[in-house]
Amino acid sequence: MFKKIILYLILGVIILLGYIGIKTITAPNLQRKIKYVPAPELTENAVQHFRQAIQIKTVSYDNPTQWDSLPFMQFRQFLEKTYPLVHQHLDREIINGYSYLYQWKGKNPALAPYILMAHQDVVPIEEKTRNLWTCEPFGGTIKDGYIWGRGTTDDKINLISILESAEKLLQQGFQPQRTIYFSFGHDEEISGKNGAKEIAKLLASRNVKAELILDEGGFITQEKVPGLKKPVALIGTAEKGYMSIDLTVTKKGGHSSMPEKETAIDILIKAISQLRANPFEAKFAAATQDFMHYIGPEMKFPNNMAMANPVLFKKLICKNYEKSGSGNAMIRTTSVPTIINSGLKENVIPTMATATINFRLLPGDFSKDILKAVKEIIHDDRVKITIRDNNINEGTTTTSATGNAFILVDSIAKSSYDKILGTPFLLIGATDSRYFTKVSSNIIKFSPMFDPIGFHGIDERVSLHSFQHALWFYEQLIHSSK
């Protein structure tokens, strides 16, 4: 009897290994073979226009009292002066004073339109870090093959590349077959509620149904995919949701010479520590599953085997991705404290301590379930939990990797950059395009640049090589609108 059990176990192992091997060997290669077309030379005018765009401080602040409309008016004047044909031939609507919707009417109104998106605003720099910048934060300096400055990567490279390409094609007398919209919001960095959200509502009210919506998102990288050394275009087909909560603890304070065993700060720190020590369950969202199908066959053993059999090798895959913050964010809902406030004087124990925790929600992890889990993890009624600014966005639905939108962006990325792979991808940040689900189910989140540096940080910069190829990408995309 014992021998039979051993034989059955061995047979089971052999069958399992055979199944794994067959799945690995027969995993289809989904990479499209697209001919690379070299990009035109980068012109001095285009570089100068990009530099000028960076020099205009279109900053969005969380505190509305810091809002300064003047730079946004200057940016409007800059766009009108720099791109005269765009403003002569395209219809422009101004939404809520500072956001823009351009309409480039196509020859064939029966064709569903394209919508190309970007945003004008940038995050502020921390003044105390100004001396840590290599170049002036708003200088648009050219140095070491890069354009430096706040907004280079997020998101003026896309906005300027779209308009440069449109102006060039208009100079050639080009008119698209299908209508193309340009949507340029002014408040993406503070939720996009007055810009992109209103543009989306306007288009939906007009029953506009787009064939493609393209917004910022993933990019081309040689460094961000564990187990892969080839450059790969991370083409976002879904994005994570967004939610922030405030934790508040109120407890009698007093003189620092007579502390109780627990203070408001102690209780708050314990709550934060509990959240950090209990991460949410790792899951493979639909976009991540598509990512594995596209990228797995390009990997070496054992990574290709794991990607071909993700259910069996979930622990191995998760362990690999958990090594980096960006990788970990692809497989689970994340939480992190971003603001902590308490205390006014060094010898006074504060009565109140507060912390803001930011969550990025995996598609399928709904906010109500995450809030319930947070309460269970903290397990302390002294910690009051409230949703910050009543601002919740759930994770988005997933654009099909077999649909025309993904295929088009994948193909043009490969024709714009030599010898790259392309893959669907779960975007871990938030974009303005999340408001456009009623306008199209074909939403792609992709910025055609190579390994940008300094998103929201010090020394933000993007290479001239990336700018050259971003221009070429958008020119080809607009040409394809037929």
Beta-strand residue fraction: 15-25%
Domain tally: 2
The unreliable regions are none
Gap from first CA to last CA: 71 Å
Q: Helicity range of the residues?
A: 25-40%
Total DSSP helices: 14
**What average pLDDT do the residues reach?**
94
The radius of gyration computed from the alpha-carbon positions, rounded to a whole number of angstroms, is 25 Å
Number of strands: 17
Proper CATH architecture of the largest domain: 3-Layer(aba) Sandwich
State the fourth-level CATH superfamily of the largest domain: Zn peptidases
Largest sheet: 8 strands, mixed
Your description of this structure?
There is one protein chain. β1 (91-95) and β2 (99-104) form a beta hairpin. The chain has helices spanning 2-25, 44-55, 70-82, 84-89, 152-171, 196-205, 264-277, 286-295, 303-308, 314-321, 325-331, 367-378, 404-416, 464-479; strands spanning 91-95, 99-104, 114-119, 142-143, 146-148, 180-185, 212-221, 232-239, 241-250, 254-255, 334-342, 348-349, 352-361, 383-393, 421-427, 443-450, 461-463. The protein has 14 helices and 17 strands. It is globular and about 75 Å long. By secondary structure, it is α+β, with helices and mostly antiparallel strands. The mean pLDDT is 94.
What are the salient characteristics of this protein?
35% helix, Aminopeptidase, alpha+beta, four-stranded antiparallel beta sheet, eight-stranded mixed beta sheet, 14 helices, 2 domains, 482 residues
In short:
This protein has 482 residues and is of the alpha+beta class. The protein is 35% helix and 22% strand.
